[in-house]
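User: We ran a pulldown and think these components assemble together. Before we commit to crystallization trials, I'd like a predicted model of the whole complex to look at. Sequences follow.
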Amino acid sequence: MIEAQNHIDGKWSTKGSVEIHSPSNTTEQIGTIPDAGESEIDAAVRAAKKSQTEWQRLGYAVRGNLLHQAASRLEANLDLLAEVATKEMGKPILETRGEAARAAAILRYYAGEGLHSVGDVIPAAKADTLQYTTREPLGTVGIVTPWNFPLAIPAWKLAPALVYGNTVVFKPAELSSLSAYVLIDLIADLFPSGTINLVLGKGAVAGEALIRHESVNAISFTGSTTVGHHIAEVAVGRGAKYQLEMGGKNPVIVADDANLTLAADMVVSGAMRSAGQKCTATSRVIVMDKIRSSFTDALVQRVKELSIGDPLDARNYLGPVASQAQQEKVENLINTGAKEGARLLVGGSRASNVSQYGYFVTPTVFDQVSIDATIAQEEIFGPVVGIIEAHSVEHAIALANNVRYGLSASIFTNSLDTAMEFVNGIQAGMVRVNEETAGVELQAPFGGIKASSSYSREQGRSAIEFYTHIKTVAIRPPKA
Ligand code: NAP
Ligand code: MG
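Assistant: Here's a predicted model for the assembly, 480 residues in total across the polymer chains.
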């Protein structure tokens, strides 16, 4: 049992009474969290604001060193982090182990990133004037995260915010609050009081108070498009900087000349790992008519072999989805898919054979999905993939682009011409050739276009664009 607490101004506050049960076994209570509201958010924001100048003055080297120490703490506790995350949101243990290691690597990356140059020297009209740009922190940043990457997403927001001199108030998804608590508990004492504040509560209450707080200078959000667009409105209304990473409906195109074994393997991985609950999950497979039946056979055969069950057992490829609401949403979309005329090839039912006490959904493949179908347009966020037929690469790209999202996309082909046609024509922030739609590396920019993003980028060097502002300086020597 983990009794999670808020962390405000360097102090852990009272435990809460909201019970958290495992999605793999709802009879097992795994912890409790507080139900924080406006007053806790206000206290956390005040603490963050009060400590920010001192944190900024410490300088990059000290802040980077603290991030290195924090990374070491995570590295020494990968199993703990993985187990909590797996129990809490149901992602298979090998995936959460990898995610925990990724979180540590992100901290290390930004520990070093803080030492890179931050500006330019720009010629001035007067020869004796030194004109240059530097970067300054925004102040206090509100961080709002989803439950599907309970360790990596917090890390890739916290680390750049901190290294560039901001203080933070972090409100994780309610469904990943235990993971967030364990993560912050491992590292918080390394940092000055008030630098990292964690507030656990509901999005509509604690989250809402955070995004509206006048002393929160910027908000970094990952989650659904609906909540993201609401946050944008609030932020614009009070002049706060914001960054949104949101939903996806990521396509894979399988060209005539593709390596079908590779394509089928990568579609399974992209669509079914994390039970399809990745923003970059493969949700649509657009297949050339000539190879459709051979590709479909290869895909269905693989999907039938996937083992689903206890995510703590490393032999299982899929665990449950994260919550009852998630299970119901996915099942409704599966039913809608069938009603709207798509052909169910495998799956399509509640995996009640696994356990009646967990939110298991059988991995599902639909064929003959029409581009206007609900399951071709709406993010499903479950282990479901739909096959759409195309007659040419051009047609496939047009179908791929015919959605409101634009996060990631990939193509399988052996032709450089086809690959380049795709790279140039596809509307997505992250484009991959002969790779699955998920899995962008931590040192490369991450983000989408259209309804997937506010067009800012996270990870890699691009994080500096959000977490700092540019100050332009001109210095002229006083007359002798
Ligand atoms: P969500 O419902 O939008 O929630 C995201 C976060 O916002 C949670 O912390 C939530 O708190 C909080 N929140 C809810 N209402 C709020 C409000 N009025 N004001 C401030 N905060 C509020 O998303 P989710 O269900 O956690 O995650 C799934 C979604 O995330 C999917 O759409 C997925 O595509 C997207 N996602 C995108 C990316 C990406 O990088 N593009 C990555 C991962 C996930 P509560 O949980 O307490 O309600
Ligand atoms: Mg939600």
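The two ends are 71 Å apart (CA to CA). That may be worth checking against your pulldown data before setting up trials.

User: Thanks, that helps.
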